[in-house]
Design brief:
Blueprint (H helix, E strand, L loop, with lengths): L1 E5 L6 H10 L7 E5 L5 H5 L4 E4 L16 H7 L3 E4 L2 H6 L4 H13 L3 E6 L3 H5 L3 H16 L5 E5 L13 H14 L4 E4 L4 H8 L6 E4 L6 H14 L1
Parallel strand pairs: 1-2, 1-8, 2-3, 3-4, 4-5, 5-6, 6-7, 7-8
Helix pairs in contact: 5-7, 7-8, 9-10
The structure holds 2-phosphoglycolic acid.
Amino acid sequence: MLIAGNWKMFKGPGETEAFFAAFEAPEGVEVVVCPPFPSLVAAVSSGRTIYAQNAHWEPRGAYTGEVSAEMLVELGVSGTLVGHSERRQLFGETDETVARRARAALGVGLGVIACVGETLEQRESGDTELVLKIQVEAIAFAVGDHERLVLAYEPVWAIGTGLTATPEQAGEAHAFIKELLDRPVLYGGSVKPENASELLAQPGVDGALVGGASLEPDSFAAICRAAASTS
Ligand code: PGA
């Protein structure tokens, strides 16, 4: 089981240090934290496994506002998220740029958590599988079933909304994704201490990508404990 905390644009270096001073992870679960770029150094010095939230596909160049995978390696970062729905929806990320980012990060030895998921409109119009197929195949075409690749199924309608996929919906989506690409699949979207055990118990759910509930050391630790007792 892998539990990854996506801090989004929360916690500068000071709050990052305070988090790690208070956070205790149980044995028997792999824990990853993804802070914003300016907090990566503070996070790495905690000794925990740290991922970035994005990485560019070129090692260097005239790409204002971007950070390369090489630079992350130099900081001691172990991997990166790519293709989060907030990147896709708010910052113009496409299946092609997600695939390029994943390939570059894996190419320099980073781990990658690549996010996929349908919007509410797509689910309601019966297009969930089509959307997942297009998103997963773009990643699969670029990097195949790379051993450092993990996928995250995050239904967009469940992110930060308090709505979660039912364990059954998650199970179905995970099974579908694994048929397309045989890699571990995390579930993400309003995972909390109260619902983690049930979601993580679903066949095909190999861990969780946690946003809001990863910001407090106690709630994130509770989700990690739920994973440790499920695996
Ligand atoms: P949430 O976010 O847990 O706050 O819904 C999940 C994510 O965006 O990765």
